[in-house]
Specification:
The protein has three helices and five strands, in the order αβββαβαβ. With about 110 residues, it is of the alpha+beta class. The protein has a five-stranded antiparallel sheet, covered by helices on one side. The N and C termini lie far apart (about 30 Å). Bound molecules: guanosine-5'-monophosphate and zinc ion.
Length: about 110
C-alpha cells in the first residue's frame, strides 16, 4: 500500500522513533511545528477518525496512554501540551493514516489556524 506511515511502520523509510510496541509507534514529525512534535500512530492502517470502529476501543486507549507517557518523558506534563487529530480536507489532514499529533514546548495559541 502506498502509505508513508505504513512504510515508516514497516521500516521501509526511516523515522526518529520515540516509542514502539505491538500496536502503536510514535516518531518525530519531519516538519515540527513546536519544540516537541511527535506523531502517535496505530500500526493498523486506519484512514482517519471516521474509519475507527468499535473494536478499536483498546487501541485508542493505548494511543492516549502513549501520549501521556511521551508528554511526561518530554517534561510537558506540568507545562501542558496539545493532542491534535486533523481529519479530512478542511481539517487539514495530509496523510491518510490515522495519527495523533503531540505538540508542546511552547505556548500554543487558540484558536488554531
Ligand atoms: P496531517 O497534516 O495529516 O495532520 O499530519 C501529517 C504530518 O506528517 C505532518 O505534520 C507532516 O510534517 C508529517 N510527515 C509527513 N511525511 C512524513 C515523513 O515522511 N516522516 C515524518 N517523520 N513525518 C512526516
Ligand atoms: Zn498506512
Amino acid at each position: 500500500m502506498d502509505c508513508i506511515f505504513c512504510k515508516i511502520i514497516n521500516k521501509e523509510i526511516p523515522a526518529k522513533v520515540a516509542y514502539e510496541d505491538d500496536n502503536v509507534v510514535a516518531f518525530h514529525d519531519i516538519n515540527p511545528q513546536a519544540p516537541i512534535h511527535l506523531l502517535i500512530v496505530p500500526k493498523k492502517h486506519i484512514t482517519s477518525v471516521m474509519e475507527i470502529d468499535d473494536e478499536e476501543n483498546l487501541l485508542l486507549g493505548d494511543i492516549i496512554l502513549t501520549a501521556q507517557n511521551l508528554a511526561r518523558e518530554n517534561n510537558l506534563d506540568k507545562k501542558g501540551f496539545r493532542i491534535v487529530v486533523n481529519t479530512g480536507e478542511e481539517g487539514g489532514q495530509t496523510v491518510n493514516h490515522l495519527h495523533f499529533h503531540l505538540l508542546g514546548g511552547r505556548f500554543l495559541t487558540w484558536p488554531p489556524g
